[in-house]
Amino acid sequence: MPEAVRALVLGAGLLLAVPAAAADDFARGLSAYNAADYESAFDAWYPLAEENDAKAQAAVAFLYLKGLGVRQDDARAADWYRRSAQLGRPEAQFFLGTLYYLGRGVPQSDQLAHVWCEIALARGMPAGLDCRDAASARLTQGEVQDAYRMAAKWLERGRIR
To answer: What is the pTM of this model?
Structure first.
């Protein structure tokens, strides 16, 4: 894996904002996270994630990815990132793309890595550029074109088919 992608995965951290509807619960989780009380953060965020709060889903995914307050589990991280990514969270789209690139928690797929990282980049996540380009380097020109088409469809309709 290119060192730039590895650095982004290890250093990206949580890029979260507090949702208006669940501000108190999310803020409680964020405070717990910042105090390194990861179990309390998980307890605050998990119910929000179950209610389709994309920010909480990305937060829960990150806890699973890093094994903070929960047993480290790439498959659960990928599942929560997928849910959040499909709801439009750029950081979840980036992390999901990175997981596809690495084959962690999902079957390795350079094409899906390209798609998700391109979507993240288009949605304002500059880290998606390195991930997308690293995945592209392992694809044929036709596969790259297909990946761009898939990303464009998602961006137009809000989902990948």
So the answer is: 0.84
